[in-house]
Structure formats: C-alpha cells, structure tokens
Amino acid sequence: MTWDIWLIFFALGVLLPWRGRARLKTLLAMPRVGAMERIVLYASTIAFQWVIVAVVAWRAWVHGYTAGELGLTARDGTRLVVGSIIGAATIATFHWFNLRRVGRMPPNSRGSIQAIAECILPQSTMELLPFLALAITAGLCEEFLYRGFAMAVLTRLGVVAWVAVLVSSILFGLAHLYQGRGGLVSTMLVGIVLGIGRVVYGSLVPVIFWHAAVDIVAGIAGPRYLLKSSLNIVESIS
Question: On the chain, which terminus has fewer CB atoms closer than 10 Å, C or N?
C-alpha cells in the first residue's frame, strides 16, 4: 500500500478511536450536558465525517478505484430495494428489543452504557432531528469508509473476502471504542453482518440502510428505555 493509504488506515484504526474516546471523556467530565452541547456534538460529527469521506474519496480516485470496487453501484435494483427494506426492518427490530431488554435492567447494572446514553442520546424533539441527520450521515459515510474503501483496498491486495470483512469490522469496532468493551464487541459483530451484506449484494446500498436503521432506532428507542427522566420524544412517539 502507498503511504497515503497507510495513513488512512492509521486514521481509521488509531486516530478516530482516540478522538471518540477523548470527546466522550470531555462530555462525561462536564457537570451537565445540555441540549446545546448535544446538538453541537451531532453537527460537528456530521461535518467531520463528510470531510473524512471527501479526503478518502479523493485518494481513492487518485489511485483509480472504480465505483464497482467501492460498492457505489446499484445493479439489480429490485433485489437491492428488497434487501435494503427487509434487512433494515430486521436489524431495527432486533436493536429495538435489545434496547428494551437493557432498559429493564437496573440502571446501576448497565455499566458505562447508562452514562454514555445520558450524555449523547437526544432528550427532546429539537435534539432528535439533528440526531436523525447524524444517523443517516453515519450510514452513508461510515459504510463508504469501512465497507467501501477499506474492503476495496484489502480486496485489491488479494485478501480473501472473509478476511476483508473481518479487518474492516475490527476497524469499525475500534471507531466505537468510546462505548467501552461491550460497545467494541457488539459493533464488530454488526460490522461483520454489514460486511457480509456488502459482499453478498456487491453494493453499499443495502448496508447503508441497515446501518442507518440501527442508529435511528438508538435515537428513538434509546431515550425511551435508557434515560431515567421522562422525555418529550417519548411522549411524542407513545
């Protein structure tokens, strides 16, 4: 791999995890995280992800990666639409019930997930809207980075598909290391599912929908089941 590709992988595997942990540590150290702090967090993360995607897409173009290699194709539209809808509905349902299961546990037994939820999950309709924008952005940007670019680079190097899926999933898990060990493992497992979907469909389209569905459910069901206080969003969706 060339120096710039190595630098991108270093950023994905080291710099982004470090940045995520540092930002969360700052939030957790605050006496109170208010609506404005969360909205700024969502907006800055959206901007940051699009900047990273722009840089990576530029280097991919310089090195001659095709749309097909990056998964930016949509052949067999009916199959992609069906796979996107069914997959998104399935993964969203599992995630919703998992959050409900965690919500039934005593707050002091939920570990770091409780503190993280209280810091970063939306707690009003005003916060929910930018959070949903972030969820869609994450689906687009992170899938391009991990299932698009990273898997394309590994495939071009001659790595077999299952290893490409595993390596990209490890990088994806590390990016969510701020959620703790449990978050690292669970995100890696989700990454493996997304990676398999990328290989099976030969496109990022379905996995973008699946990924966005996970984050959208987190923004709606997370506050409903994990936060102690009664929230405006809960009232609006009840």
Answer: C
Rounded CA separation 151/154 (Å):
5
| 102 and 113 Cβ atoms separated by less than 8 Å | yes
State how far the Cα of 203 lies from the Cα of 198, in Å rounded to an integer: 6
Alpha helix ranges (H) inside the chain: 3-10, 16-29, 35-62, 77-103, 112-120, 125-142, 151-156, 161-175, 180-201, 205-226, 232-237
The two structure tokens encoding residue 164: 């490409």
Q: pLDDT (tens digit, 0 to 9) for every residue of the chain, 238 residues total?
A: 899 999 999 999 999 999 999 999 999 999 999 999 999 999 999 999 999 999 999 999 999 999 999 999 988 889 999 999 999 999 999 999 999 999 998 877 887 888 899 999 999 999 999 999 999 999 999 999 999 999 999 999 999 999 999 999 999 999 999 988 888 999 999 999 999 999 999 999 999 999 999 999 999 999 999 985 434 444 444 4
Alpha carbon distance 228, 208 (integer Å): 31
Cα–Cα nearest to 219, from 47, 31, 45: 45
CA 232/CA 238 separation, integer angstroms: 10
Alpha-carbon gap, residue 60 to 66, rounded angstroms: 8
- C-alpha 113: how far from its chain's center? 16
